[in-house]
Amino acid sequence: MALNLTPCVYPLIPVTVSFFAGRSGQSRGKLAIHGMLYVGGLALTNSLLGVTAALTGSLMGDALRHPLTLIVVAAALVFFAASLFGFWELRLPTSLTGAASKSHTGYFGSFFMGLTLGVVAAPCLGPFVLGLLTWVASVGSVWIGFLVFFTLSMGLGLPLFLLAMFSGSLEQLPGSGEWMLWVRKLMGWVLMGMAVFFLQPLLPSWLGVASLASVSLAAGLHLGWLDLTRSRSRAFRFLKTAVGAAGLVICLYLISPLIIAGGPGISWKPYSSQVIEEARKLGKPVIIDFSADWCLPCREMEHVTFRDPEIIKQTEGFIMVKADLTTKADPALERLVREYSIKGVPTVIFLDGNGKELPELRVGQFIPADQLLGRMTKVGQLRAFGSQD
Q1: Closest listed residue to residue 333, CA positions, set 272, 267, 268, 269
Q2: What is the CATH number of domain 269-388?
Q3: Distance CA 42, CA 196 (A)
Q4: d(CA 353, CA 389)
Q5: Most CB within 10 Å of its CB: which of 95, 149, 205, 336?
Q6: Is the predicted pLDDT of residue 121 greater than 70, yes or no?
Q7: Which residues of 304-335 are buried (b: 16+ CB within 10 A; e: fewer)?
Q8: What ranges do the domains of the chain cover?
Q9: H, E, C per residue of the chain
Q10: What is the mean pLDDT of residues 142-165?
Q11: In this structure, are strands 286-291 and 319-324 parallel, antiparallel, or unpaired?
């Protein structure tokens, strides 16, 4: 929705109003069809881009997990962010933008107008969309690719749909101005955050979090107070301050686990069949954490849940095993994944003292420390009950 406020899209809003105002004599139902076709054309273009990027990424496979690939992806995101900061401008051929600007009548006209909106607005939308395409390609999921860009289209198209429905009753819109350049810079900082996100697997855990917090801090200071964009609008001044404050709050939120945790987290043992066999001989329960460097919830589990002091204290009664699925290059890990039917990461499984899984305690998503602590307590209770028997 914020992309509607960039300098390339906002001038199209009066065009949208005039386009649909010419149909104001039609019934509200027909006007709604025009609006849905308009948004549908926009969604089709963007969703096809997302699916294509996901398919391309999936064909690249584990190459996308290679450190050099992550560096290239991060560099591309920074390059696109530089365009949004005004260091360079994305320009399409005049013939392409001219063809996209042509007007057509009827329902096809509404659909075609939405279909080509991305082409006309490419100087502002292009760098942000290309940044998202880079991220989707790295994920390699067709469903994620479709969902991300369909959601982007809905956010971009919803205000335009409302304008289409009420175009006959609108009198004026807020005037354009320098504040649109500020919105572009906001999108640039989003891409900078994505670039740091890609580099995190290559950095020590604490440095990855600190880098992301630094981007949030820099974005807050820049957008909130250092940027010289001015506007007479009191709402815009409030928005600048609010975004600046939000950047500072996010920075504190990111670094707070490091400050609170203080000392080191859990001492994990890399997975091996010998470790599991040793635990079985000792009669000790095992926790196996299936994770990957590129998995955001896995990092959240590592920085928040597994650094909780109570969790660390409870792990004294367990053998803590880490199954790193970042590259899936280890045949032993592949057998382990098949044995326990691991569908994704993060997944945390619990084995009793005999090496058998307790399936009712399995975790398949991020959970806070109190929920994990409850599962660990249940394992202890089952162990005590078994020893009484």
Answers
A1: 272
A2: 3.40.30.10
A3: 29
A4: 14
A5: 149
A6: no
A7: bbbbbeebbebbeebbbbbbbbeeeeeeebee
A8: 2-176, 269-388
A9: CHHHHCCCCCCHHHHHHHHHHCCCCCCHHHHHHHHHHHHHHHHHHHHHHHHHHHHHHHHHHHHHHCHHHHHHHHHHHHHHHHHHCCCCCCCCCHHHHHHHHCCCCHHHHHHHHHHCHHHHCHHHHHHHHHHHHHHHHHHCCHHHHHHHHHHHHHHHHHHHHHHHHCHHHCCCCCCCCCHHHHHHHHHHHHHHHHHHHHHHHHCCHHHHHHHHHHHHHHHHHHHHHHCCCCCCCHHHHHHHHHHHHHHHHHHHHHHHHHHHHCCCCCCCEECCHHHHHHHHHHCCCEEEEEECCCCHHHHHHHHCHHHCHHHHHHHHHCEEEEEECCCCCCHHHHHHHHHCCCCCCCEEEEECCCCCECHHHCECCCCCHHHHHHHHHHHHHHHHHHHHC
A10: 80
A11: parallel
- Cβ within 8 Å of residue 316, ≥6 positions away: none
Contact between residue 161 and residue 39 where contact means Cβ atoms under 8 Å apart: yes
Q: Which of 99-103, 260-264, 266-270 has the lowest mean pLDDT?
A: 99-103
**Structure-token match 């933008």, residue found:** 97
Torsion angles phi and psi, residue 62, rounded to 5:
-70, -10
User: Tokens 């067709």 — which residue?
Assistant: 142
Q: Which residues contact 370 (CB under 8 A, 6 or more apart)?
A: none
Each residue's pLDDT tens digit, 67-116:
777 788 788 889 888 888 888 876 645 554 454 445 555 677 777 777 76
Q: CB of 44 within 8 A of CB of 120?
A: no
Partners of residue 286 on adjacent β-strands: 319, 351
> What is the C-alpha R_g of the chain?
26
What six digits make up the tokens of 261?
Answer: 């945790």
Tokens of 144: 């994620």
